[in-house]
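Tokenised fold entry reproduced for absentees:

. . .
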Amino acid sequence: MERVSRRGLFSMGAALPLANVAMAAPPSAGKKARLRTAICAYSFRTELGAKKMSYNDLVDLAVDLDVDGLDLTVYWFPSTTDEFLVPLRNYAFANGVEIPSISVRTNCCQPTPELRAKETQAIKDWVDVAVKLGAGHIRVFGGTVPKTSTEDDAAGWVVEVLKGAGAYAAKHGVVLGLENHGGITERADRILDILKRVDLPSVRVNLDMGNFNRDAYRQLEQIAPYAANVQVKVDVRDENGKQVPADWERIIRMLKASGYRGYLSLEYEAKAPAPVEVPRLTRELNAVVKKVSAG
């Protein structure tokens, strides 16, 4: 389906046939949820980019904020050599902070076999990095549908890349989380269609609370059973696409009902300084998670 037509249907609230996909639920489905909090390195993109903070500083901050883990956005890694990765892993371990996830840039909507092979290899390389850090999850993007292609064609390319990379990830104990990040993953039903066609336990969802461009709560509920990692945002889009404050308790209860076992990583994107806002928001998130876990 062409992008223009897709947007027209979506703006009218039409349900697409893809919504009826079915697949095996994750092993935790129907079991007691286990919710842990974390902070996402992307929250401190300004400080990391300006070298005013290091990844070791994020480890220290996780201790100060009483969270269990770090979702390490890799954009500011000085290298991916052992000289950087091993000391970082050791420092996190020494401070009782886990590194459950790394977040990387990918674009799986590649129109040629050669480009898809290159993208597959790039994800495999990040799997090797994740293993060295002790991370069991990698956030990946589906990418943007080329203007000269259809969404159906692009979805097939994403499936091909994720099948190859996902098989490699499985051999190394790593899960790839396809994020709802616009483009080919703009809608929950298309995400589920891709997961069904990939059909690997090592390819699941990185659920980002703030990325659906409308009707967020309904779509988040659709993908919640397949979440391997969750990134927490302060805003969501309502049925009409209006940005509104996120109801964290509502979404986290969705995750609990789905049997989610994993991390909720605060990913702060607003303009106010992260060193001021992240501690405040983390205290709020910890309180909500504690409340939902207890009830």
User: Anything to note?
Assistant: The longest strand covers residues 34-40.
